[in-house]
Amino acid sequence: MIRTIFKNIISDTVLKIVVAIFLLLLIFKPMNIKDIDLDTIMILFNLMLIISLVKRAKILAYISNSIINHVQTTRQITAYITSTSFVLSMFVTNDVSIITLVPLYILIAKQLNLSIVYPTVLITIAANLGSAFTPIGNPQNVFLVEFYHVSIQSFLANSLILLVMGMLSMTVLIFFSENKPLQETPIKDVRINKIHLLMIAGLFVLVLLAQFSLFSIWIDTLITLVVVEMFSPKSIADVDYSLLLSFVFFFLIVGMLSRIDLVVSLIHQFTQDGIHTYLTSIITSQFISNVPSAVLLSKFSADFTSIYYGVSIGGLGTLVASLANLLAYKQISLNVPQFSGKFLKEFTFINIILLLVLSLLKIILI
After folding, report:
1. CA–CA distance, 355 with 313 (Å, rounded to integer)
2. 279 exposed, middle or buried (CB, 10 Å; 0-12, 13-18, 19+)?
3. CA–CA–CA angle 226, 246, 291 (5° rounding)
4. Are 14 and 182 in contact (CB under 8 A)?
5. φ, ψ at 72 (rounded to 5°)
6. Most exposed residue of 59, 143, 170, 209, measured as fewest CB within 10 angstroms of its CB?
7. Which CA distances in Å does 264 have to 158, 253, 257, 278, 361?
8. What 8-state DSSP symbol labels residue 184?
9. Rounded to a whole number, what is the distance in angstroms from the first to the last CA of the chain?
10. Which of 47, 45, 5, 57 has the alpha carbon at shortest distance from 231?
11. What pairs with residue 73 in β-bridges?
């Protein structure tokens, strides 16, 4: 198990890039271990353990089979799997929704001779938009809630507008998908253990309570580890430790950047008020991804709302705007490499249009 974990860590391209940036910045500024938000790292670790249990309990496979059993047209299956991505991302994070549903859809598409590119683009967009609604839907939400000590009532009051915008966006995008009769295909019977389902639900509740400081993060971690060790010890190896290490280095990098005078001066100029902070969050997300953007800008602004809206909508746009986008492209490249170029073009075109529309819509509503 340790060998597998180590192999996955040293082979991760994103981690290599992050470490290289860290080493480069280390030349100019010393690191400060206090820049690491340990609470956020531990919550992400717990979520990853729970998500591993979800996958091993075949809950997602069960949901997918239910979808196939209740559709009759290609548009319906696109709508169902996109909606699944939208809702699941709220609880198992946008990254896990992508890793699980994109390969699953590709498999179904090959069996039923369905279009691959447009639906996978929609699955990715749905994961980014849906995950914005909950405090555990994506890493930047986990961090922002921890950093600003936002209550669950306050968070949901802010996120509701993004939920509505996301639902309307997905409805319009699904309308443009192809609509042909779906041929019948045999599927494997998948059953889930109700006790495991209740156990996983309980762990989700505990991690949510821990995030809002209503329960000890360390006790939550201990309980989660004990449950995993009892029911599925192999799940410990399923955790994406390279991603956790990437976040550790993200925190260190952002800390070093925030102590460089030129960077400090520039960011101060662009975070003077809510609208500038919002636009800066969107723009920086396009180049350094929304998670590092959230961490960086939080050091210069107390405006949680503007940063939250900016990095949430900023996950749309370029391929690097969100880690979920890169994961979707990686799944396409691995499973159907012949479509990778077309996916990149359609993804970029649709995402930029949606980014512009939602960005302007939010400005009008502010």
Report:
1. 7
2. middle
3. 100
4. no
5. -130, -15
6. 209
7. 28, 14, 8, 17, 30
8. P
9. 50
10. 57
11. 181
**Beta-strand (E) ranges in 181-308?**
none
Please, are residues 281 and 294 in contact by the beta-carbon 8 Å criterion?
A: yes
- Distance, in Å, from the CA atom of 285 to the CA atom of 181, rounded to the nearest integer, reads 40
User: Which of 105, 92, 9 lies closest to 52, judged by CA?
Assistant: 92
Question: Which two three-digit tokens encode residue 230?
Answer: 């009892």
Nearest to 60 by CA among 224, 232, 197, 236: 197
Question: What mean pLDDT is predicted for residues 151-168?
Answer: 94
Confidence of residue 64 (pLDDT cuts 50, 70, 90): low
207 contacts 43 by C-beta, under 8 angstroms: yes
Q: What is the 3-state secondary structure (H, E, C) of 240-293?
A: CHHHHHHHHHHHHHHHHHCCCHHHHHHHHHCCCCHHHHHHHHHHHHHHHCHHHH
User: Which whole-number Å values give the CA distances from 149 to 108, 298, 309, in the listed order?
Assistant: 42, 12, 17
Q: Which residue in the block uniquely carries the two structure tokens 């479509």?
A: 339
How high is the pLDDT of residue 120? 96
CB 290 within 8 A of CB 140: yes
Does position 308 have pLDDT exceeding 80, yes or no?
yes
Residue 218's SS3 state is: helix
How far is residue 89's CA from residue 132's CA, in Å, rounded to a whole number? Answer: 9
- Residue 296 identity (one-letter amino acid): L
Reduce the DSSP state of residue 343 to 3 states and report it. Answer: helix
Q: In whole angstroms, how large is the CA radius of gyration of the chain?
A: 20
Provide the token pair at 25.
């910045």
Lowest mean pLDDT among 56-65, 146-155, 261-270: 56-65
Q: 143 or 64: whose pLDDT is higher? A: 143
The residue whose two tokens read 């956790």 is: 244
- Interatomic CA distance for residues 195 and 282, integer angstroms: 42
Tokens of 65: 């089979």
In the numeric block, which tokens belong to residue 214? 């209503």
Q: Which among 142, 105, 134, 93 has a CA at the least distance from the CA of 323?
A: 93
Asked if the model's pLDDT at residue 264 lies above 90, the reply is no
CA–CA dist 221, 46 (Å, integer): 6
The confidence band for 253, taking pLDDT boundaries of 50, 70 and 90, is: confident
